[in-house]
Amino acid sequence: MLASATAALTATSIAAIPPATAQDMPTGWCADRADLTVLGPSSETGYGTTGYDSPDGTYSPTPHAWVAQFARAADATWNTITDVHARNGAMIWDFLPGGRWPSTVAALDAIRDTQPDLVLVGGVFANEYLNNWDLAHAERNLRRLVTELRTARPGVDLVFTIYPDIDWPESRRPWADWAEVIQRVATDTGTRVIDLRPLIDTPYNDTEGHWSDDHAHLNDHGQTEVAQHVWNEFETWTRRC
């Protein structure tokens, strides 16, 4: 669907993206869309979509994985190269020095090497929420990651995505509390946010078949909806450059 990028994706934007300013122009996405990096947990690996078969829980560009759909569209439209460092189960601290997996820890070094124009951190706090992490600790990790990303690539544009509300029954805090912190960090650090909560309802209220049977991961339909929405946000932003 996204291979015909500009013709296929015309849905109305839900998450408002502010107009680009003169500060966007010299170094980030508005100046050059050559390279983009995606970090995230299973929401960015393609897990839950048909054909996902990564043996180590990392990214697999299945036909319906939202990151893969977006990457194909960005390549077709802007010749953008998308580098994905995502791992099932990852938390924000896994992308910092001392993280659990070489594939996530390597992300900062890769960003230093490739100097992407934009880094998208997807599924922020999804696994911290599921594992009942301390919210203040998670916030400190996110702020540190922003600092590390901007040190590795000065002038980079950053985007967070807020995952749809899973409404996890064992969670001690509502997802809204976590989303509020993501929004606060974004505001404080000049990071853009794409909030997916208005797009897709919780697994227990969803009537459109967006979720896998585990009630935690989006299926082919759900990830295609995300891909279309994120693409629309980027197109809107890019037209304002």
Outline the fold blueprint.
Elements: H1 5-8, E1 35-40, H2 66-78, E2 81-86, H3 102-114, E3 118-121, H4 126-130, H5 135-152, E4 157-162, H6 175-189, E5 192-195, H7 220-239
Helix pairs in contact: 2-7, 5-6
Short synopsis of the structure:
Residues 49-223 form the SGNH hydrolase-type esterase domain. The protein has helices at 5-8, 66-78, 102-114, 126-130, 135-152, 175-189, 220-239; strands spanning 35-40, 81-86, 118-121, 157-162, 192-195. α2 (66-78) links the parallel β1 (35-40) and β2.
What does this protein look like?
By secondary structure, the protein is of the alpha/beta class. The protein is built from 7 helices and 5 strands, in the order H-E-H-E-H-E-H-H-E-H-E-H. Helix 6 links the parallel strand 4 and strand 5.
Features:
241 residues, alpha/beta, Rossmann fold, five-stranded parallel β-sheet, 7 helices, globular, disordered N terminus
**Cα distance, first to last residue?**
25 Å
Query: What is the approximate shape?
Result: globular
Q: Which structural class matches the secondary elements?
A: alpha/beta
- Which strand order does the major sheet show? 2-1-3-4-5
The major β-sheet equals: 5 strands, parallel
Organism: Saccharomonospora piscinae
Keywords: Signal
InterPro entries: SGNH_hydro, SGNH_hydro_sf
Protein name: SGNH hydrolase-type esterase domain-containing protein
